[in-house]
Amino acid sequence: MLHYGHINLLRRAKERGDYLIVALSTDEFNWNAKHKKTYFSYEKRKQLLEAIRYVDLVIPEEDWAQKVRDIELYHVNEFVMGDDWKGQFDYLGQETEANVVYLPRTPEISTTQIKKDLNEKQLATQHDSKID
C-alpha cells in the first residue's frame, strides 16, 4: 500500500546517490515467502513506482537471497531500507561491498496503521488486513 511515507523514503534514498534501483517483490514472492496477498499485481505496482520521479529502475525481487546477486549485478554502492528493518540486512555489508543504511520512517504514517484505521471504520474487512 503505497503512501507518502514511502515517497519520503524514496526521495531520501535518491538524495544519497545518482541512481535509485527499487527491488519490488513479485506476487509469488509476497505470497510464498511473506504470506501476503497483494491488492495490485506486480505489474501495476511496478507502474506506480516507475511514475515516481525519484525511481530510476524497478526490478523484480523473487527471493530473499537475490539481494546479494543484485548488489553485485548492478554495482550497488549503498543498500537502503526503512529503519523498521534495522539489523535485518546487516549481513549484506559483509557479503558485498555495499554500505547498508537504514533510513528513519515518516513517524505519523504506516501501512499497518492505515489498514487498522480502515478496518475500524469498516472500510476494509479483516480479510483485507493481509493485503499489502
From TrEMBL:
Domain Cytidyltransferase-like, first and last residues per copy: 2-116
State the NCBIfam families in the record.
cyt_tran_rel (TIGR00125), g3p_cytidyltrns (TIGR01518)
Q: What is this protein called?
A: Glycerol-3-phosphate cytidylyltransferase
Q: Does the keyword Transferase apply?
A: yes
Query: Out of the domains of life, which is the source?
Result: Bacteria
* Record GO cellular component, one term: cytoplasm
Give GO terms: molecular function aspect only: glycerol-3-phosphate cytidylyltransferase activity; metal ion binding
Keyword NADP annotated:
no
- BP-aspect Gene Ontology terms: teichoic acid biosynthetic process
Keyword terms: Nucleotidyltransferase, Transferase
